[in-house]
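[User] I wish I could look at a protein chain and see how it folds. I have put the entry right below:
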Amino acid sequence: MRRAGGALAGLIVLGAAGGAEAAPLRIMALDQCADQYVLALAPDAELALSPRADDPDAWLRREAVGHRRLRPTLESAVGFRPDVVVRYWGGEPRLLTALETRGAKVITIEDAVDLDGVRRNIRTVADGLGQVERGRRLEQRMDAKLARAAPAPSSRPAPGAVYLTSGGFTSGPGTLMDAMMRAAGFRNLTTAPGFGAISVERIAMNPPARFILGFFDQLRADLRGAGRHPVVRRAAEGRTAAGLPAATLTCPAWFAADAVAMMAEGRP
């Protein structure tokens, strides 16, 4: 009996060890951008997504259905016990330090000012999650979309356009949007670097030949923003090359290529 009991105990230990080895990685995403990366790269892991994972401006909002949501707090993190934490802007410094102290690996998605920056983000997160091959495939799909959207060689100058958000902001050189516009075959008519406000008066006096609009699908957002002014609306009629959904613009990720493809469709 003792021999049989010892054998059974050994099987239980082996089974427990096997179960531990088979346990999925526990990944916590601290913001909506991180949600997109973990859903794309590690959908079979045990995920804790941010409260905004299925908002209308989340690219993978349908894939987020059914996953748990946690607020980016230390109390939530301690209860979930993540192996890996992924963030873009979410998580204040004390929370990140506490997570690392408890043994969690923190992966940060960086701001990207060009498409190479997006590629670096994909590789960084994929490597941190142990999903290098999935990351490689994701990058390949992004590059294939960019190649299809690229303009054919031409001696003619690229058509000019101004990017405008519903809040009345535009984007110049040194931004990801500028790189996306150029990838779609447009010349950015905003020459001041970085992000800045654009006035209704400027549009009224000198309307650009083409608009690329962003965030206008968020009907309740920026209701009083300069981009929604009647003067701007009239100026954009018949001059809009693309209306980019917010879901393509909220995160420096591979779906920037989808926005490039949308812009390319409106290229003259």
Remarks:
- The longest strand covers residues 160-165.
- The two ends are 85 Å apart (CA to CA).
